[in-house]
Write a structure and sequence with these properties.
heterodimer; A: alpha/beta; 5-stranded parallel sheet; 46% helix; B: alpha+beta; 3-stranded antiparallel sheet; 47% helix; disordered N terminus
């Protein structure tokens, strides 16, 4: 037996190199290579998680002022507003990231802190499907329900109701004693075992819930009642029951009633007094509609938000905020005017409309903050003398300028410049380097794009000989 | 002396057309004549429809309308009206019976045709009338294309370079010498272009001297190099130089024996019929100016199913339009490939993710040699095809109407009956 294998070392020994970005005190390239927000991505670089709020302070202030801080009980609170992009090609300006973060902020404590406890609202983001699938109002509200469902706000409401029921029946009930944290609370209130372990009669809780004044006019088959209808089996109703119920409802009126009356009632009973529905990429709706469909859509919207018999129209529960790119207002102008929506919440009014939040281009200071935020998120050691290292400040200003102050282009260019710097083992990314990289990329681009004299084409004389 | 022995065409040059570009003028005239025989009423209605169809006097459609029309504008409108009236009378679409204008049977058929079969068929029908009554202008155009530049399958260029494009700032041009310096640079650029696009080495020294001589004789350019020229005449001088060279290319280089004006009007009409393509906006990183190329061939026969026979001449020659069909899968593949390549090219030039769809269209039309309306159709099919390896996003963005431009220089792209003006493509 050869035991020397334990003492011998290989002749070719591996050297542990520095990480690719380590010399810059970075774990990875912090910038996204394709900076379009994908909320479902796990990568913080492009799911909107790395976010610099100072850039959108103005927009944030505006939306807080005209929406979040206005009490929902104010009969004149706005029910329909618009975030309008003012730049020509309205992509990559940071609207989706803005929405993702607004939603997060609201849902953290259901807008209680933003509104000084005047409002308790949840927020959801709805993105119409591409290709015209969300063309009709029916498909629009189907999508709305899906997003409400995914946000788990129905489950949250059921929990609130249950908890309230428990506290009402037992004034001494102490939350902290029974639950370790939010998750524990959610799991336990859903579990029959917890009720029996704690000697709480679930049927009594259910009956207690049903005394809530808001819940008096609901239809008998509303899912909330399913836990009382079968007293033999213990079955705490969950939001899945709501989903099944919704799917079994006929399209049209019954579904509208459900979303805009019954569900609103449930939310009200659970203590919410409103909801913010952000509709990103709204143009995907009118883009595929005929003039008639646009008008019908606008009319339905008006009925459901403002003057129908739905509970929602009566209290103004859902507040819709449509995100419009440049060029979209025109698409819906005549439908909005004909349906009377324009009077209700003007987009086109010459006087600056209070319903419109203008989404402006960013400036150079915003660009600094944006880059800093990304760098910071990927620093190995947080102590750094130059917060923009390895970039110099004038290099960043140039990157911003060359990217036309478009947030997504700035990030993409920062990504590319950093990659190039690593490849060339450059210590500092300064103005000269950015200019050189930009020039080189322009040169290669010009070489690649052919003029008409070199472009591939057909010889029609020869072509006409072919069979 | 012309130092290139290019072509002396055997075919007789055609007569010039009426002084207007849009074939829709015929349609609106016939339409109003069908409602009233009275010339004043016809004119009033004609103006209404002219505005409705945005038809202007130039080759571009109008976007803005003057709110109060001046006398001189009105007399221009009247002139255009008379031009349309006279050409339609020549083609026997209308008749004038002592001041009462009425549709002929052919005119009435033509309106119906347009309403049932659409604008493309209407234009093709007009094509036959123009070809027969004006000594075959389109045959003349197309045959000369191929003769003038056989190595590029009939592609003709008409370069236009401002001083700025050649790297000279407008403010630095003040003396006669400065202007000559610009002319000299222009001359060099034109020589390069001729070599590159037409494969000919031609010296333009003498031509350039001729241009300078003419401008001097007309008092636009001072004789002395150091003398200042009248700044107010700057644009006049530039326009004269531009037209001088355009005419040189048309007549001396390509052998056309018609005026620049007549050529343009026939060419833009040919574009509406689908016989050829003409544009000033081909996105080319090096070249600036107008390009024209044929989308049809004239020959004795063709068995290719990509060509559609439009007309037969008295000498048995046939005119075929290049019209590949979407049904053929190879065409689908070719279109998608070409669209993707064009998008990448335009994106590199523009350096934005979403790029101008009309620019992409220019490149695809040239590479596939198809008309703009065929491009629109193909794009619509491709857009709805979910099997493709690329995903296409089409967006509206701002339409020309919403900007401050006066004229619609390029027809917007229509997909699903809606205007689209920017595009992005990703590999799926």
């Amino acid at each position: 037996m050869d035991i020397s294998k334990y003492s011998k070392r290989p002749k070719s020994e591996l050297v542990i190199n520095k990480g690719r970005y380590e010399q810059y005190n970075l774990k990875e390239n912090p910038f996204p290579s394709s900076p379009f927000v994908n909320p479902n991505s796990n990568d913080a670089r492009n799911n909107g998680e790395i976010y610099e709020p100072s850039i959108r302070e103005k927009e944030n202030e505006a939306i807080e002022k005209i929406f979040f801080k206005v009490p929902q009980s104010d009969p004149n609170h706005l029910r329909l507003g618009y975030i309008m992009d003012t730049s020509y090609i309205g992509r990559g300006n940071g609207k989706s990231a803005f929405l993702v973060n607004l939603q997060k902020k609201i849902n953290q404590d259901f807008a209680l802190s933003i509104s000084n406890e005047l409002n308790k609202c949840f927020a959801i983001i709805l993105i119409p499907e591409p290709g015209g699938k969300t063309k009709t109002f029916e498909s629009f509200i189907d999508l709305l329900f899906e997003r409400i469902f995914e946000s788990n706000v129905i489950d949250d409401s059921l929990l609130s109701l249950r908890l309230e029921g428990i506290i009402n029946l037992d004034k001494t009930f102490n939350l902290e004693e029974h639950f370790i944290d939010e998750n524990d609370l959610k799991n336990n209130l859903q579990s029959p075992k917890w009720y029996s372990d704690n000697n709480i009669d679930f049927r009594k809780i259910s009956q207690q819930i049903l005394t809530n004044p808001y819940l008096q006019n609901l239809p008998q088959d509303f899912p909330l009642f399913s836990s009382t209808s079968n007293p033999l089996l213990f079955h705490p109703v969950s939001q899945n029951d709501f989903k099944n119920y919704y799917q079994n409802l006929k399209r049209g009126q019954p579904r509208l009633e459900f979303i805009f009356s019954h569900l609103v009632t449930l939310f009200l009973a659970a203590g919410f007094n409103g909801a913010y529905i952000f509709v990103d990429d709204f143009e995907r709706v009118p883009d595929f509609q005929s003039e008639r469909q646009k008008r019908d859509f606008a009319l339905e919207l008006r009925t459901c938000l403002f003057d129908g018999l739905y509970t929602n129209a009566k209290v103004g529960f859902y507040n819709l905020i449509l995100v419009l790119h440049a060029g979209v207002p025109r698409l819906i102008q005549s439908a909005w005017e004909q349906s009377g929506l324009e009077q209700r919440s003007p987009i086109f009014s010459k006087v600056t409309s209070t319903n419109v939040i203008r989404f402006e281009k960013i400036n150079v200071n915003d660009a600094y903050s944006l880059i800093h935020k990304y760098l910071q998120a990927y620093r190995i050691n947080q102590v750094d003398t130059n917060k923009f290292s390895p970039f110099t400040q004038d290099a960043l200003a140039k990157i911003a300028e060359l990217s036309e102050f478009n947030a997504s282009k700035i990030l993409k260019m920062a990504y590319e410049v950093l990659e190039r710097a690593v490849d060339n083992n450059v210590e500092e990314i300064n103005l000269d380097l950015v200019l050189a990289i930009d020039e080189a990329s322009q040169r290669t681009e010009q070489r690649q794009v052919s003029g008409i004299s070199e472009a591939d084409t057909k010889d029609l004389m020869k072509e006409s000989e072919r069979n | 002396m012309v130092n290139n022995p290019i072509l002396t065409s055997k075919i007789q040059p055609p007569q010039p057309p009426g002084n207007f570009y849009f074939l829709e003028y015929f349609y609106i005239l016939l339409k109003v004549v069908s409602t009233s025989p009275q010339i004043e009423k016809i004119f009033d209605q004609f103006l209404n429809l002219k505005h409705q169809y945005r038809l202007g006097e130039s080759k571009y459609k109008k976007l803005t309308e003057y709110s109060n029309i001046s006398t001189s504008t009105m007399s221009r409108y009247k002139y255009t009206f008379e031009q349309v009236l006279s050409e339609a009378t020549d083609y026997k679409l209308i008749t004038d019976n002592n001041g009462a204008i009425s549709l002929t049977e052919e005119g009435a058929t033509l309106i119906r045709k347009s309403e049932i079969e659409g604008a493309v068929n209407f234009n093709q029908y007009l094509f036959k009338l123009m070809e027969e009554k004006r000594q075959q202008p389109f045959r003349y155009l197309i045959e000369t294309f191929y003769k003038a530049n056989p190595r590029k399958s009939g592609l003709l260029i008409f370069p236009i370079y401002s001083a700025h494009r050649l790297g000279i700032e407008r403010v630095s041009i003040t003396t006669s010498k400065d202007m000559k310096k610009y002319f000299y640079r222009l001359k060099e650029r034109l020589e390069e272009d001729i070599y590159k696009h037409l494969g000919k080495q031609i010296h333009l020294e003498e031509k350039n001297n001729e241009l300078i001589r003419r401008l001097t004789e007309d008092g636009l350019l001072p004789k002395e190099d150091s003398e200042l020229f009248e700044q107010a005449k700057y644009n006049v001088i530039l326009r004269r130089a531009r037209d001088f060279w355009l005419k040189y290319f048309l007549v001396e280089l390509y052998g056309y024996q018609i005026s620049l004006n007549s050529f343009e009007r026939w060419a833009y009409r040919g574009k509406q019929i689908g016989l050829l393509h003409i544009t000033e906006f081909y996105p080319d990183p090096h070249f600036n100016g107008r390009v024209v190329y044929p989308l049809s061939v004239i020959k004795q026969s063709s068995n290719s199913n990509r060509f559609h026979k439009l007309y037969e001449y008295s000498d048995n020659m046939q005119l075929y339009l290049h019209q590949p069909s979407w049904e053929d899968e190879t065409n689908q593949e070719e279109f998608v490939k070409s669209l993707h390549q064009a998008y990448l090219d335009v994106r590199q030039l523009a350096r934005t993710y979403f790029v101008s769809l009309p620019n992409v269209r220019e490149r695809v039309c040239y590479s596939m040699k198809i008309t703009e309306y065929l491009f629109d159709n193909f794009l619509e099919y491709a857009y709805h095809n979910k099997q493709l390896r690329i995903s296409i996003s089409l967006e509206v963005d701002k339409l020309p109407d919403e900007t401050k431009v006066m004229y619609l220089r390029r027809e917007p792209v229509m997909v699903d009956g809606k205007y689209r003006n920017i595009i992005a493509i990703d590999l799926a």
